[in-house]
Design brief:
This protein is an alpha+beta fold. The protein is built from six helices and twelve strands.
């Protein structure tokens, strides 16, 4: 199936998210490329898509690569009018959008808080959000998204942690339609978020996908790790964890990692 600027543009039916598409066969990183586009004046909603990236990375600067023809690798440029204080929540907005897109294609996804989208307790998507801002004004935000779509096998070191749409279904998917579904979901979710600058209007949808909801979790705090029961998220995206003494703690995504007690999720 063809996968290029023209086919992606034809597949997207939105007002602004992904209406301008840039495509390169290869780039170092779609986030690096998108930041260059943003500095050069790219409008809100511009989408940078590649077939192969040589320097892709995820959270904690982990390397992220994928074979040609297998994955969606894209970065969305945003120019929010709200305070930089709220930008970190956009990562959860995108995680929700990818989960909704996966559901549209017949899967039963979940989200490992804050933004790993999971099928069969294995990761299919990574998201990396970066921002350029002054003290009280956002210049631009870029949200990078990598989705394992038609990947048939994974390196041994990640085979127990990663999966793809193909691995879960035995079917190949049109990546143009995957990109379009994510953009359509994100546009709706972003507009809800923008009204309140919090996740209040998206919280119910997000918690429907939350992998650990009402399940035991271990909070890997570097100072004092502890265990508890996940009770959902706050309106600003922190994870709510109820400890055995009944105290509900708010866990920040930038502070700790959360793992299920018995699995990757």
């Amino acid at each position: 199936m063809l996968y290029n600027e023209e086919t992606i543009t034809q597949a997207i039916h939105t007002k602004w998210a992904g209406k301008t598409v840039h495509f390169l066969k290869e780039t170092d990183s779609t986030n690096i490329w998108a930041k260059t586009l943003a500095r050069d004046g790219a409008p809100h909603g511009t989408l940078a898509v590649t077939e192969f990236q040589s320097a892709g990375r995820g959270r904690f600067n982990r390397k992220w690569t994928a074979s040609e023809g297998t994955s969606v690798m894209m970065t969305l440029v945003l120019r929010p009018q709200f305070s930089p204080l709220y930008a970190s929540m956009l990562t959860l907005v995108m995680g929700l959008s990818v989960a909704q897109a996966a559901e549209k294609f017949g899967f039963l996804p979940s989200i490992k808080w804050p933004n790993d989208v999971v099928l069969s307790r294995k990761k299919i998507c990574g998201i990396l959000t970066e921002m350029s801002a002054d003290v009280d004004k956002i210049n631009f935000v870029v949200i990078g998204v990598g989705i394992n779509v038609n990947t048939q096998s994974f390196p041994e070191e990640v085979a127990d942690k990663a999966t793809s749409f193909y691995a879960e279904s035995g079917q190949r998917f049109d990546r143009n339609q995957i990109v379009a579904a994510v953009m359509e979901a994100f546009e709706k979710n972003y507009e809800k978020f923008e009204k309140t600058c919090n996740l209040t209007e998206l919280r119910e949808d997000y918690e429907r996908f939350l992998a650990n909801l009402n399940q035991p979790v271990r909070v890997l705090d570097s100072h004092a790790p502890y265990e508890g029961i996940c009770r959902g998220i706050t309106g600003t995206g922190e994870l709510l964890v109820e400890t055995e003494d009944g105290i509900v703690k708010e866990v920040g995504a930038g502070e700790v990692s959360v793992r299920g007690l018995y699995s990757y999720v």
